[in-house]
Amino acid sequence: MYRALATLEPWSRAKRGYTNGFVLSLGMLTFRIARALISFALLAGPLCPPRAAAQAAPASDESLLGQPVAAVRVVEAPQHVLSENPSDLAIAPGQPLDRESLRSSLRRLYATGRYADITAEAFSTPAGLRIDFLVRLNSFIGDVRFEGLQDPPSGSQALGVLRLGLGERFRQSELDRGLVRVNQLLRANGFYSAGFKPEIRPRTGTQLVDITIRVETGSRARLGAVDVSNPTTFHSDELIRTSRLKPRQPLTAARLEKGSERLRDWLFRRGFYAARVSAHPGEFDSASNTVPLTLDVTAGSPVSLEVTGAKLTSARIRQLVPVFQEASVDEDLLAEGRRNIRDYFERRGYIDCDVQYTSAENSGNGVRQIIYAVTLGPRRRLASIEFTGNKYFNDDLLRSRLTIQPAGFLRPAVFSRRLLQQNEDSLRALYASNGFAAANFQTETVENYRGRPDELLVRFHIEEGEQTRVESLELTGNSAISTSDLLAVTGSTAGEPFSDANVASDRDNILALYLNQGLPETRFEFRVAPGSQPGTVKLAYQISEGPRITVAQVIVDGNEYTRLAVIRRRIRLKPGEPLREGDLILTQRELYSLGVFNHVAVAPENPQGDETEKTMLVDVQEGKRFSVGYGAGFEVLPVGSSTNPTASTLEFSPRGILEFTWNDLFGRAQTFQIRLRASTLQDRALAEYSTPRFLDQRNLNLQLIAFTDKTLDISTFNSTRYEGTLQLEHRISTVTTFLYRYTFRHVLATDLKIEPQEVPLYSQPTRVSGPSVAWVRDLRDNAADPSRGRFYTVDVSLFSRDVGSTANFIRVFMQNSSFTPLGHNLIFARSTRFGVETPYGGSLSSDIPLPERFFAGGGTSLRGFGLNDAGPRDPDTGFPVGGLALLTFNQEIRFPIRLPFTTTAVSGAFFYDAGNVYSSVEKITFRTTPPPNDLNWLSHSVGFGIHYPTPVGPIRLDLGYLLNSPQFTLPTSPTGLARQHPFQFFLTFGAPF
Amino acid sequence: MRASSIRAFLILAALAAPLLAAAQAGVVVDRVAARIENDVITLSDVRELAAYQRLAGREPAADSELLRDLIDQWIVTNDASAARFPAPPQAQVDAEFDALRNQVGSPEKFAARLRELNLTEAAVRRLVAKQMFLDAYLERKFRAVARVQPGEVERYYRDEFTPQLQRRNQPVPPIDDVRDSITELLLERDITRRAQQWIDQARAQLDVEILPEFKP
Q1: Across A241-254, average pLDDT
Q2: Of A347, A605, A668, A852, which is the most buried if we count CB atoms within 10 A?
Q3: A575 in helix, strand or coil?
Q4: Contacts for B115-122 with beta carbons within 8 Å, 24 or more apart?
Q5: E strand or H helix at B104, and its extent?
Q6: B50 lies in which domain range?
Q7: What is the DSSP letter of A90?
Q8: C-alpha–C-alpha distance, residues A814 and A850, integer Å
Q9: Is the residue at A702 inside a domain?
Q10: Claim: this prediction has a pTM higher than 0.95
Q11: Contact state of B29 with A6 under an 8 Å Cβ cutoff
């Protein structure tokens, strides 16, 4: 270690000014220079004898330095010339050979990332020296997979610890290190004798290598004796039993972790909040293939935690006091618990709540007792919020930024000191981002508001101060992207407020724009200078663009069944074009959307190299081509009675589902699926074939569906349906779609409740066949449970005898829905539906098949009626017969409901539904009381619903009341009349409209 | 006659072949000596360091040792650059360069020596500046944490300082007279130790590959 710089000895001595003794200064010198030599080695000093120079490295001829260079080549050994006189090297023809340019050129070539080794050789030629850079090409990682693994661990886990990234430089040392990690993973999962056979296959024509690691795992070890290091008062056997870890169980990392967690939770429930448990396998016994296990338990002191002065459930205490989550008891966590408990009660109206805690160890039993003493004080509520001094922002805007809120309709007040502080910070940030850097805020809490002792007013006093605006913005350094394009994403333009936050936002937007133009190394700097006017600044953005990265080529790998053309059509990256981040992400997304790949990786080859043309690698992992799904459940449906036209019954039915799916048919990402569903209420069998990107068009998807369905859903008859549909989905934009369909439907209506001689056509089997077009424009934020946006659809169907239909008729259906937030978490949702059917070409209205008519009533249309109960009825039997026109209006106000355990997840809705099904479009009327023999009238229903959201849509319980329930003719009734039952309730899954 | 011409040609060809082969063979003028992360240390780096050592009037260390030192240098440079440590002022660099030149001899002698060693003045200035930069960085990084343990001054005075002076028949000053100097020396020793430890740890974590020809 002691290497001295004797050369600089006079300098060092003079610098240090040592005068007392050669040894001291020499010793000082030694260490001073030894340190210097750690940074810059020179030669051994007097304390270390000089070493003879050993020339182990190959000799280089420096006598050539200074001679003129005639040519420069880059050559892949032995004689494959890759380039001649490359312009980006420091060494160039016509210049003398010098060490500096040689070194710089070597570094330049290495920095491209393409070469693993480079040697510069000089050849004498009549014209001068020819410098050949002999290179050995790097290899880059292509497809990596494991064979022979036994789950656990899974292939993806093993790949994760192997850490060989797609496109990165391949180094044997990295593979070796990765295999060590994989071996550790295997040992953690019981494979102590695993062997690896990595096979590295260069891919012809590329610099890629594909790596297959064949693993011979051997048998998974089992647990041997299980022991515990037990500092607790509990019996060791009890601890082991609690962990449920037993001898002879297969050893997996997940099992050990689960067992440790079980034991820790058990100790936790007994007050050992700082307990830690870890499982340590011992020495592997190859003879018995077992591993003994020791559970290391660190229990800490038992803790009892109590809250006095207020009621809190244990679950709530665990949520508020972080000692439980952190598994530790320290002052910081206890103090945080105090703040959380106070905040909890403040939010519930105990604004003067005070919480103190004590923590002391009971010398008798060793238990640490923590007591949170809560003094609630009187319960008060925030009644109002006021702002003073604000000119730039109005009260409504400021109020919308607050989380504290006064009490409202079915909505309690939300207030706490912590929230108040957060809101003050939020307002301060709002003003700062709008140029008011010096805005001052003070909050005042006024008690006994309006003379009421339980009411509070919070008043924000705002001193806005001077606003700083941008006088001018100068953009320099940009050439790849025009100034106007950059200004389009910049907020800090002339006249706009100035703030650091806005500049940061501009920076992010500008860099994102450059990143998406293949310029990832762009740098952004800014300068601020006082403007010529008071309260203004001059802003200057300096852009340093860096080189543009373009796509050289795209290499696809990993597909065994899927056709290459199918994959290539979804790749957005194009050779010659800039490497855009957006294209990379879209490519990945589109390949995933095919539904045939488990994993899609898109990465550049040689990411660390500074080349400006990158080969892009697309590596896919195909999923299972065949899958089977099954499930069971039950359904509940209110169904009209088959004997009483005014009654309905709840029908319960178990349901079973079976699905077979073939993915990636013919390697074209096409799908064929068979779905079978059976219950006592409905049987269905469906076969579906779909192909994405029909006719090679990105926005065209084709589906062919055939199904048969037997349903008891209309009380007039049972329906058996056979249907085939050919559908072409044409996506015009992300929100607009056209659906072109051809439908063939054969419906059998059986168990008729209508007299056949009066309606003869209804007793015959019917067929409908014809094309239809639907236009859909969906602007909702969430199709399953929308809270804002609009939805439009128009569907036109034409059924003709010429193509097999039993009647000629046209059906038009339109729907428009909107969802409007009203503030304070209220949403106004409405929907209007209109439909009309009309016969043509010699067909009569009575020719239109019963099942093809409009029906309404139920949880997703008119909630004052049972399922399909609205509209005209058969005069003899009283059962609904549907109609040829439909007009419905649905309105509801949705609001959050605060309930225990659900906070505000549950919402309620008051609704008003109006409308009906009409015999024909001419019969549409707004009269509210029809005569008994003409049920064309406008119904009005009101009701209340409770909704609970789920990730795929809300579960709803709706109670509807039909305000103007009509009477209708029913010969079998004693009075000859019957009345629609006014109350209905529905348990439904999904949004109402 | 014809046969003799052919024989002569063959003899000439046999004689000329090695010469021709020698003319075709390239001379290695530079190559990669070690790879460290995404950078390389070249043979010319090693040669330059060896030349600098000769300029200082010493025989250079072995190539493998020089290469190791250059790797250490790379580690410190990388850390200093990441910390945006400032370069030394040009005036100080000039002063140190002048001191080195004066050590070698007259300006003409210095220039001749540079030519002999294939060094340029710019390269030497660069090397001096770099050394100052790294030295100052290590000082900044480790001076604050360097410590002299209790009793260490006395131990050094007793076990190293006094015996060395006695061997040279020089008078041994009282410990209190040299306490400050010894303390500074021991601090420097601690800085060196910490720096080396840090470098060793950093080296273990980096992706460093020395080509076989340059391994000891």
Answers
A1: 96
A2: A605
A3: coil
A4: B117/B51, B117/B52, B117/B54, B117/B55, B118/A62, B118/A65, B118/A99, B118/B51, B119/B48, B119/B51, B119/B52, B119/B55, B120/A100
A5: helix B90-104
A6: 32-214
A7: S
A8: 20
A9: yes
A10: no
A11: no
Residue B197: other Cβ atoms inside 10 A: 11
Q: For residue range A485-513, list pLDDT tens digits in order.
A: 999 999 999 999 999 999 999 999 999 99
Query: Shortest CB distance from B29 goes to which of A8, A61, A107?
Result: A61
* Shortest Cα distance, chain B CAs vs residue A64, angstroms: 8
Quote the strand ranges of chain B, DSSP E.
Answer: 27-36, 39-42, 208-210
Taking the C-alpha atoms of residue A113 and residue A609, their distance in angstroms, rounded to an integer, is 4
State the average pLDDT for chain A.
Answer: 86
A911 or A20, higher pLDDT: A911
Q: Is residue B17 part of a domain?
A: no
At residue A657's C-alpha, the angle toward residues A562 and A712, to 5°, is: 130
Test the A interface: residue of B44, B67, B196 with most A CBs within 10 Å: B44
Q: What is the CA radius of gyration of chain B?
A: 26
Q: Summarize the confidence of residues A424-441 as an average pLDDT.
A: 93
User: What single letter denotes the amino acid at residue B171?
Assistant: P
Distance, CA of A536 to chain centre: 42
Q: Identify whether residues A665 and A756 lie together within a single domain.
A: yes
A480: domain CATH number is 3.10.20.310
A58 contact residues in B (CB cutoff 8 A): 28, 31, 43, 213
Contact state of B178 with A41 under an 8 Å Cβ cutoff:
no
- CB within 8 Å of B148: residues ≥ 6 apart: B183, B186, B187, B190
Nearest CA in chain A to B127: A40
- Structural domain including A156 reads 140-216
Query: Tokens 């990158």 map to which residue?
Result: A614
pLDDT surpassing 80 at residue A31: no
φ, ψ for residue A142 (rounded to 5)?
Answer: -100, -120
Q: How confident is the model at residue A187 (pLDDT cuts 50, 70, 90)?
A: very high
Q: How many CB pairs under 8 A join A and B?
A: 231
| Pairing assessment for the beta strands A208-216 and A140-147 based on DSSP bridges | parallel
Total structural domains in chain B? 1
The sheet with strand A455-463 has its strands ordered as: A381-388, A455-463, A440-446
Reported as a pLDDT band with limits 50, 70 and 90, residue A21 is very low
Q: CATH no. for residue B174?
A: 1.10.4030.10
Query: A558 - beta bridge partners?
Result: none
**How many Cα neighbours within 13 Å face the side chain of B72?**
28
User: How would residue A25 be classed by pLDDT, with cut points 50, 70 and 90?
Assistant: very low
Residue A122 makes CB contacts below 8 A (sequence gap 6+) with: A61, A64, A97, A129, A130, A131, A132, B26, B27, B28, B29
